[in-house]
Amino acid sequence: MQMNIWQELPQPFLILAPMEGVTDIIFRQVIAHAGRPDLFFTEFTNVSSYASDKGRANALERFEIASTDAPIIAQIWGKNPEHFAKCAKALESLGFSGIDLNFGCPDKHVNKAGGGAAMIKTPDLAIECFENAVKSTNLPVSIKTRLGWSDTNEYRTWLTTLLEQHPAALTVHLRTKKEMSKVPAHYELIPEIAKLRISISPKTKLIINGDIRDRAHALELHVKYPGIDGFMIGRGVFANPYCFTNHTPTQEELMELLKIHLALYDERISQALRNLSESRHDPVSEKLRLMRSSYEPLKHFFKIYINNFPGAKELRAKLMETHSIKQARDIIES
Ligand SMILES: Cc1cc2nc3c(=O)[nH]c(=O)nc-3n(C[C@H](O)[C@H](O)[C@H](O)COP(=O)(O)O)c2cc1C
């Protein structure tokens, strides 16, 4: 019998939220260095990409995990029940402790494709996708969602529908899809949601998400809302990468994290370039494309590490003009 990670976590537990383009294998290792959460999630990956011959290699790359990631949950999204089954089955042998279904992403491309928060509008399909995932794997299957599509009161029917499926865990981002992240999270609804969970599916772990800053804030919320098992932090990690600890980092410690991030990135890109050399007929142009396209997204992370100290803005501006890891390193060292 497979261990159920959700039953092994401390009470309350903290999770780093899945964030596309942020919580990749590199950033998770940086956070593990600073102070890890009790549980990591991957960024979300499309089940139909995994199910297609063309998209599988890319999906598998997104499912790569580091030794410091465990325990970690793979998050998936889509709208095709058979593809949920196929992907859930494959995930079992990739080192994950569980599988999470994203029924809350508000991105318009994702919703147009019928996935993420669009599932709120197609509850029968959401159930079918969940059932297909559950029957295809021994891993615990959880769900992450929002209160509703456009009205906060939708949570009564939507969360009831989900809890009736008895997921291993349910994460509720306390906003509707329409609210995006533009209004404060609706903490006032927590007691009602906690009651729903107890009356419908007491074994489902209940996690709340939205505007939680750090460990101290999560513990404060736990005192106020003892009916919650876990707290998920997303953007709080941008303000403080040490948010899962009680530590306020020094400037030196943040610079050290940046150096770790750059070194891990360097290692991963070098590996990708080596793989390309071995597999492609025209590796030179592909290599250049890979190096250019992968360096730009790295710049989004500079603000996390270079912030809130005299000269931070100027240093960041210089780094934003760089085009390679070597240039970035030279600036940091000088
Ligand atoms: C850049 C970014 C990417 C995100 N990607 C995902 C994702 O892949 N899967 C997911 O379930 N939620 C995703 N989210 C939503 C977060 O997981 C979280 O629900 C949201 O940021 C609210 O939590 P916070 O107020 O702690 O940031 C993303 C959010 C951000 C800011």
Description:
With 334 residues, the protein is of the alpha/beta class. The protein has two domains: 235 residues, Alpha-Beta Barrel (TIM Barrel), CATH 3.20.20; 83 residues, no CATH class. Helix content is 46%, strand content 13%. The chain has an eight-stranded parallel β-barrel with strand order 1-2-3-4-5-6-7-8, surrounded by five helices. α8 links the parallel β6 and β7. The chain is globular, with a radius of gyration of 20 Å. The model has no long low-confidence stretch (mean pLDDT 95).
Strands, helices and their partners?
Elements lengths: L12 E4 L8 H11 L3 E8 H5 L4 H7 L9 E6 L3 H11 L6 E6 L4 H5 L10 H14 L4 E6 L8 H9 L5 E5 L16 H11 L4 E5 L5 H10 L5 E4 L2 H4 L11 H29 L3 H16 L3 H4 L6 H9 L4 H9 L1
Parallel strand pairs: 1-2, 1-8, 2-3, 3-4, 4-5, 5-6, 6-7, 7-8
Helix pairs in contact: 1-11, 4-6, 7-8, 11-12
The structure holds flavin mononucleotide.
The site of flavin mononucleotide has 23 residues, from strand 2.
